[in-house]
Amino acid sequence: MTEKTKLIAPRLPRGFEDRTPGEIAAVGAMIDKIKAVYERYGFDPVETPLFEFTETLGKFLPDTDRPNAGVFSLQDDDEQWMSLRYDLTAPLARYFAENFETLPKPYRSYRQGYVFRNEKPGPGRFRQFMQFDADTVGAGGPEADAEMCMMMADVMDALGLAGQYVVRVNNRKVLDGVLATAGVTTDEQKLTVLRAIDKLDKFGTEGVKLLLGAGRKDESGDFTKGAGLTAEQIEPLLTYIGSGTPAEGVEKGSNAHVIATINTLAGLIGGSETGLQGVQELASIFGLVSAAGFGGRVILDPSVVRGLEYYTGPVFEIELTFQVQNEKGQPVVFGSVGGGGRYDGLVSRFRREPVPATGFSIGVSRLANALKLTGNLGSTEPAGPVVVLVMDKDQMAGYQAMVAELRNAGIRAEMFLGNTKNFGKQVAYADKRNAPAVIIEGSQEREQGILQIKDLIAGKQAAAAITDNAEWKAARPGQFEVKREDLVTAIKDLLAAQQ
User: Fold this and answer.
1) What is the CATH number of the domain that holds 355?
2) Do 17 and 134 fall within a single domain?
3) Do 443 and 364 have their domain in common?
4) 371-430: per-residue pLDDT in tens?
5) Which residues carry a binding-site annotation?
6) 14-27 burial string, b = 16+ CB within 10 Å, else e?
7) Is the pTM of this model over 0.90?
8) How many Cα atoms are found within 13 Å in the side-chain-facing hemisphere of 55?
9) Which residue range forms the structural domain that includes residue 432?
10) Which residues are annotated as a binding site for L-histidine?
C-alpha cells in the first residue's frame, strides 16, 4: 500500500477575511457614492502599488536584520527592503515627490485600496483592511482643511447618515501652545499626553487625569504608566479638553459655541506663537464652514488629537453618533469611521522645500458595518444570472445559442454545467445562485417552438401562499410560456418587472 498524501487543511490566516459576492457588491455601491462626492469636489483618482521601499514608508525603518514589527516586509533581489503599505498617505507623498515637475499644484487626488498591518489581530482588528483617502497637496491655507471637512460631511449625507454623525475638528498647534504653557517640553512626555487625551471617549475625564499623572490601573489590574505631570500642569490640560462642552442653553456646533470655545482656547495658550496660529486657523476654518452652511455637521472639539505624530496643524475625525452595544452588551456611541489632518512635513522627507498637505482617510470596513447597522448598506445578495437548464444532453448547441443571445443583449446568463440528470437539482442550483429566472426547453417545447420561463422571484412569492404539494405542482407558480424567438424580449420584460 502507498501512503496516502496528506491533505492540507484549508485555513485562513488570523487577521484576514474572505469576502462574499454580496459583501463585495454592497461595499462597491458604497464606494461609488464616496467617489461621486470626491469627484464633485474636483478630486481625481490615482493608484499606487501595494509595495513600497521600507524607507519610503517612514514610520518603520530596517534594523540590522529586518524591518521592525508593524509591517510585512521582504527583501528584493537587490537586497533592498520592501514593505506592504500600512496606509495610503506615505505612498502618496512618495508619488507626489517623484512626479513633482509634472503634477498640478495644488494636487487633489483620492485613493482606495487595501493596507496591511503586521500587528496582533483581535475583534474588529484586521491585518488587511481597506481605506479610502482624499488629499490636497501643495495648499497651505485653512481653506483646504475646511474643504476636507465639508467634503466628509457630504460623503456621510450621500451614504444616508444625515443627522447621525459629526465631523469633529481641532488643531494640534493649539494643543502645542497649551502644553508649552503647562511646561510639557520633552517629545516623550508630549506623546504620552497626546495618547492620554485620545482616550477621553474611552476612560472619561477622570481616566485621562490619571493618565496625565502617575498612571491608571484598569479593572484587570494592569497598570498604564502616565505622563507624570503635576496637578498644576494637569489643570490647564483638563480645562483645554473640557472647553468644547457648550454652556447651558448654547447649542453644540452653533456659531455661539464655536466663538466661546475659540475664546477659551485663546486664553489657555499663554504667549505661545504656535498656539496663536492654531487658534487663528480654527477661526478661519469655522468662518468658512459657517458660510457654506455646514454648521452643526462640522464642529469644534479640542479633545480630538489623532494618534499619528506627523500631523502638524488641523486634525479632524468623523464620529457616528448613534448607539450600539459593545462586547459587554452596554450601549455605546458607534464612534469614529475616519479621520485625518494636516501633515506639512511628510512630503518634505523627499524634497528640500516645504510642501503643505492635508487629507482624510475613511475606514471602509468599519463604515460598511455602520451602514449595515443603520440599514443603508444596500442589498447583500446581488442578482444572479438567468440559467438555461439542460433537459437533453444532445441539444447542448441549442442551449448555448440561447445563452449567447441573452449575453449579446447585455443580460447575465449561463448554461447549467453540472449533472443534468436531475431537474430539481438544476432549479435548486439556480435558486442558490439567486437567479431571477430559469429557461426550460424539453423535446416537447422544441417541437412546438416554445420555451418555458420560470420566474423564480414570483414563484417564491406565490409558493409561500400554497400549502399543498400537489396544488403547487399543478399551479407551477411563476412559470409561463413564450415563443422561442421572443426569448430576449420576454427576459428583458421579466427583469424590468422585478426591479
Assistant:
1) 3.30.930.10
2) yes
3) no
4) 888 888 876 678 899 999 999 999 999 999 999 999 999 999 999 999 888 999 999 999
5) 87-89, 117, 131, 135, 306, 310-311
6) ebeeeeeeebebbb
7) no
8) 6
9) 386-498
10) 87-89, 117, 131, 135, 306, 310-311
